[in-house]
């Protein structure tokens, strides 16, 4: 039996990989690594020291940005400054910083430069 890690990989669709990469590098303050994969272009998020757990921005004709559907949450140290940078980089806050029950931390959601709904989570 496999020991699953959730998530193992995620992809956030983009129509303009340069624009999306600039947006995410700007709001997260970290570089993304470009990787070609055949005709598909990726900009890979850092794994944060967790082997086999990462994700990427993807430009592919069959993957289109959307606000509906699955929501990927990115873990950050403090989501408040990241949310501030979302607006400064052309995104919109969809759900403001919201406390979770108990000591589960905080979450928020934003619309990125491509029109995707993406979530943030932080302990503080």
Automatic annotation (TrEMBL):
The VOC domain, residue ranges: 6-123
Top-level taxonomic group: Bacteria
Pfam families per UniProt: Glyoxalase
PROSITE patterns, per the entry: VOC (PS51819)
Species in which this protein is naturally found: Tahibacter aquaticus
Name of the molecule in the record: VOC domain-containing protein
InterPro entries noted in UniProt: Anthracycline_SecMetBiosynth, Glyas_Bleomycin-R_OHBP_Dase, Glyas_Fos-R_dOase_dom, VOC_core
């Amino acid at each position: 039996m496999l020991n699953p890690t959730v998530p193992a990989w995620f992809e956030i669709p983009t129509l303009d990989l340069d624009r999306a990469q600039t947006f995410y590098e700007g709001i997260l303050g970290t570089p993304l690594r470009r990787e070609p994969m055949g005709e598909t272009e990726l900009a890979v998020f850092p794994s944060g020291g967790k082997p086999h757990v990462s994700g990427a921005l993807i430009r592919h004709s069959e993957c289109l940005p959307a606000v509906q559907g699955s929501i990927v949450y990115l873990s950050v140290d403090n989501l408040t400054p990241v949310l501030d940078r979302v607006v400064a980089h052309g995104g919109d806050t969809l759900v403001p910083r919201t406390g979770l029950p108990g000591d589960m931390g905080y979450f928020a959601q934003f619309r990125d430069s491509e029109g995707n709904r993406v979530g943030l989570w932080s302990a503080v």
